[in-house]
Amino acid sequence: MLLAAKPPDWTHERFITWWRTDHAELTYRLPGLRSWRHTEVEAALEPRSEGWDGVSILGFDTEEDLRTALASQEWAAAVAQVGDMRGRRIAVLGTEREMFAG
């Protein structure tokens, strides 16, 4: 999962468009990628949650598949595209569990 914030000199709209178009083209190529969900953050629900623009959840069958993707040329290309854009991100690994389905 990646939580990301735009570079200081970009608009929120520019960042989301870039993430869902130019950057997405590189993400789609990651080896072993099984799913990808992207959420545009529209509002913070409390002051300490402000400053984030989007959440990406990349799905892989196993942690090994994820690690293979992270070591790939495709991942290197995606990181190179981000370059020094000066945005912020938090990247974490976890196991998803559905806790409620109404």
Q: What features would you describe in this structure?
A:
Helix content is 32%, strand content 20%. The chain is built from four helices and four strands; from the N terminus they run E-H-H-E-E-H-H-E. The chain has helices at 12-20, 22-27, 63-70, 73-82; strands at residues 2-5, 35-40, 54-59, 88-91. A four-stranded antiparallel beta sheet has the order 2-3-1-4, with helices on one face. The protein is globular, with a radius of gyration of 14 Å.
CATH class: Alpha Beta
The third-level CATH topology is: Alpha-Beta Plaits
Summing up helix and strand content along with how strands pair, one would put the structural category as alpha+beta
User: Span from first to last CA?
Assistant: 24 Å
- Number of strand elements: 4
Our count of helices gives 4
* Major sheet strand order: 2-3-1-4
Spatial shape: globular
User: Which regions contain 5 or more consecutive residues with pLDDT less than 50?
Assistant: none
The arrangement of helices and strands along the chain is EHHEEHHE
- What is the C-alpha radius of gyration, as a whole number of Å? 14 Å
CATH architecture annotation: 2-Layer Sandwich
**In the residues, how many domains can be counted?**
1
Q: What about the largest sheet? A: 4 strands, antiparallel
Mean pLDDT: 95
Relative helix content: 25-40%
Strand content of the residues, in percent?
15-25%
Protein name: Ethyl tert-butyl ether degradation EthD
InterPro entries: Dimeric_a/b-barrel (IPR011008), EthD_dom (IPR009799)
GO molecular function: oxidoreductase activity
Domain EthD: 8-80
